[in-house]
Amino acid sequence: MTNTLHLRLAPEAANVSTLLDALEAYVEAQELPIKAASRLVLLADELAANVVMHAEGATFFAVDVSRGPDTVTFTMTDDGPEYDPLGRGEANTNASLEERELGGLGLHFVEKLASTVDWRREADHNILTITLDAAAE
Amino acid sequence: MQITSSTSGTLNVATLEGRLDTATAAEAEATLLGLLAAPGLVLDMTQVRYVSSAGLRTLLKLAKQAKAKGAAYSLVGLQPAVREVFEISGFDKIIPSYATLAEAVAA
Questions:
Q1: Can you give the pLDDT at residue A1?
Q2: Domain residue ranges of chain B, discontinuous segments joined by +
Q3: Which of A38, A117, B57, B95 has its CA at 20 to 30 Å from residue B33's CA atom?
């Protein structure tokens, strides 16, 4: 059984679901523990949604997932405008209900839940790589 | 995402099943807003595997609407991965949650 997943999809809203369905099958086949699996699917949702909603002019996004002994590596590639997501998770997590605003949470999750986050721009593509603890239960 | 509605005591109960994510949040929000009325609404999250930021926006909007309507609003049965998302987003401090439906109804 292969321990990698590769998908290349058009940047359409329905394809976020296509991606998550494939990832749910992947984490089940890999028997990843619940938190590792949930973090992977959650961050994939956030990152794919960002591309689908904000990467104007992108023609595709691609996802590569591989599992090592201790980590899961997730890479998202898109050909949208240059966008470095690092350091943008600015949600105010102490705000009261009345003050709480809607936004900034997706990248906050990436910063909190990923073990490492790396972004680079290469040949007009954004390439974002995150690693996750494969043992998180 | 499937949502079924019932009642427990005087409260409406919505039982959610699946992912509350980018793809499903908007439709879930419309359904849940329709169920939100005084004296209150409880969301049973026992069968929800993931809540993304889009899902949290829906839960926050319901909380604000509940306050405006004077309705009680709480969640029950948050799974560990969902609880983790609530904690790192600070939502555990602004939306009450309980282990069981009985506790939510009694609160």
A1: 52
A2: 2-106
A3: A38
Is B56 in contact with A59 (CB distance < 8 Å)?
no
Inter-residue contact A125 to A79 (CB < 8 Å): yes
A14 touches chain B (CB under 8 A): yes
Looking at domain B2-106, its CATH architecture is 2-Layer Sandwich (3.30)
Domain boundary assignment for chain A? 4-133
Task: Identify which of A42, A95, A102 has the shortest CB distance to residue B57.
Answer: A102
Q: Give the rounded percent of residues in chain A with a pLDDT score beyond 70.
A: 94
Beta strands, E only, chain B:
2-8, 11-20, 40-51, 72-76, 97-98
For domain A4-133, give the CATH number: 3.30.565.10
- The model's pLDDT over B4-46, given as tens digits with 9 standing for 90+, comes to 999 999 999 999 999 999 889 999 999 999 999 999 999 999 9
